[in-house]
Write a structure and sequence with these properties.
Keywords: ATP-binding, Cell shape, Cytoplasm, Nucleotide-binding
CATH topology of the largest domain: Nucleotidyltransferase, domain 5
Number of strands: 19
Largest sheet: 6 strands, mixed
Mean pLDDT: 88
Number of domains: 4
Main location: cytoplasm
CATH architecture of the largest domain: 2-Layer Sandwich
CATH superfamily of the largest domain: ATPase, nucleotide binding domain
Strand content: 25-35%
InterPro entries: ATPase_NBD, MreB, MreB_MamK-like
Low-confidence stretches: 5-13
Helix content: 25-40%
Order of helices and strands: HEEEEEHEEEHEHEHEEEHEHEEHHEHEHE
CATH class of the largest domain: Alpha Beta
Structural class: alpha+beta
Number of helices: 11
Shape: flat
Subcellular location: Cytoplasm
GO cellular component, one term: cytoplasm
């Protein structure tokens, strides 16, 4: 084990840590920090029956919902794990080439990738194979809640219980951590994507208007709120296709409507936190009363979510300083800092 890690850290400058997220992929290069943050989207073009990659990341995201018949914008990650291994490989290859630039690299990097705590051995093998086929000389895995906690500067190496709730695009990871390990963890397959779907469904059900994923995501980011505002909140203008007569149409909804749409996915996240607290050992639970709960991931940016969780649990709840980057930062630190070596797993 010692020789394995010494070899891993020997050529640190070229090693890469990847937060392979359902919505976004962040890449951390040793000694350089986070150098890439792009959507986990690949546009595939089919010409005469032959498929080839047309765009990856930001360029591919702009094409979603707007492509001609011969181009398909694919999200290869679903619920935090690989749904399409071939497309995921192409995406990882593209991002590795992008961060390495035009330098001639004598050896391929060793890669650390985070995985959801609830992922199966088959799902983890798919991630390992995708990274290996993309050119990694060796692949290490780190559990997502552990990476999030390290990135949020939580005391994961100390004999103190602390709780992290990482709300990503595909999953919400709830974990109690102590002494470089997970004392309890649960992975709720609800995240930003389910919130987008809830908004699409609400607008279709109540207004007979069909909107796209990109519109729903924009509404969530700009107007998403965890509790229904007493005054109804801001008004929102939405454009989409009228399902009754099939023509484009604009409607107006309130922020209270968005809160109502988000109530189900947010309720599932709160339930996940409750279950974790019920299953936590008494001594660790006592520490959580003092330490509180830390929210990370893009979902932590939903307005009022920390206050809503505080009301539901009676515990102090705070949002990490940079919730979107916590998992990538933690994955990178686990790769760089020998104090965290024990949290890495061979795939």
């Amino acid at each position: 084990m010692a020789s394995m890690f010494s070899r891993f850290f020997k050529f640190g400058s070229q090693n890469i840590a990847i937060d392979l997220g359902t919505a976004n992929t962040l890449v951390y290069v040793q000694d350089r920090g986070i150098v890439l943050n792009e959507p986990s989207v690949v546009a595939i073009e089919t010409i005469n029956g032959i498929k080839k990659v047309k765009a990856v990341g930001d360029d591919a995201k702009m094409m979603m919902g707007k492509t001609p018949d011969n181009i398909e914008a694919i999200r290869p990650m679903r619920d935090g794990v690989i749904a399409d291994i071939e497309v995921a490989e192409e995406m990882i290859k593209h991002f590795i080439r992008k961060v390495q630039g035009r330098k001639s690299v004598m050896r391929y990097p060793e890669i650390v990738i985070c995985v959801p705590s609830g992922s199966t051995s088959v799902e983890r093998r798919a991630i390992r194979d995708a990274a290996s086929n993309a050119g990694a000389s060796q692949v290490f895995l780190i559990l997502e809640p552990m990476a999030a906690a390290i990135g949020a500067d939580m005391p994961v190496t100390e004999p103190v219980g602390s709780m992290v709730v990482d709300i990503g695009g595909g999953t919400t990871e709830v974990a109690v951590l102590s002494l470089r390990g997970l004392a309890y963890t649960t992975s709720v397959r609800v995240g930003g994507d389910k919130m987008d779907e809830a908004i699409v469904s609400y607008v279709r059900r109540h207004h007979n208007l069909l909107i796209g994923e990109a519109t729903a995501e924009r509404i969530k980011k700009d107007y998403g709120i965890a509790t229904i505002p007493a005054d109804g909140g801001e008004t929102i203008h939405i454009k989409g296709r009228d399902l009754v007569n099939g023509v484009p149409k604009e409607i107006t909804i309130s922020q209270a409507n968005v809160a109502e749409a988000l109530s189900e996915p947010i309720g599932a996240i709160v339930e996940g936190v409750r279950i974790a607290l019920e299953n936590t050992a008494p001594e660790l639970a006592a520490d959580i009363v003092d330490q509180g709960i830390v929210l990370t991931g893009g979902g932590a940016l939903i307005r009022g979510l920390d206050e809503h969780l505080r009301e539901e649990t009676g515990l102090p709840v705070s949002v990490a300083e940079d919730p979107l980057s916590c998992v990538a930062l933690g994955t990178g630190r686990a790769m760089e800092d020998p104090i965290y070596r024990g949290v890495l797993m061979t795939a």
